[in-house]
Amino acid sequence: MADELMLEIVTPEKMAFSGKIEEVTIPGSEGEFGVLRGHAALLSSIDAGELNFTKDGKKTYYAVNTGYTEVTTGKVTVLVETAERADLIDKERARKAKETAEAKLTKLSKEDVEFETIRAALTRAITRISIAEKHT
Fold this sequence. Notes:
Layout (H helix, E strand, L loop, with lengths): L4 E6 L4 E7 L1 E6 L2 E6 L5 E5 L2 E7 L2 E7 L2 E6 L2 E6 L2 E3 L5 H16 L8 H21 L1
Parallel strand pairs: 1-9
Antiparallel strand pairs: 1-2, 3-4, 3-6, 5-8, 6-7, 7-10, 8-9
């Protein structure tokens, strides 16, 4: 069993977080799951949602987009399209993205090629707003 747990949150643009933590909760595609030191190895896909971790007894919250996570002995690697710390989310920009996506969806049918892309953008915007409002 590992004595410590490292977390890395990686996006295509940057390393959003890297450090030792006590625990992490991840929005897996099959449901939210937590990882503590000594967790069994696993691979999981991630849905857009709230990722949070505890470091030095303090919780930190991120809005993450889809991706994957790998848990190995003593390390959790989260590879996601985007990761925004709750206190850094631009709520106004997220609200505008939500409004834009809602307006576009009203003009599209479910069979339209763009429908799922716009629906995913709406989900991301709603998630970002929710996390920013709950944790800032």
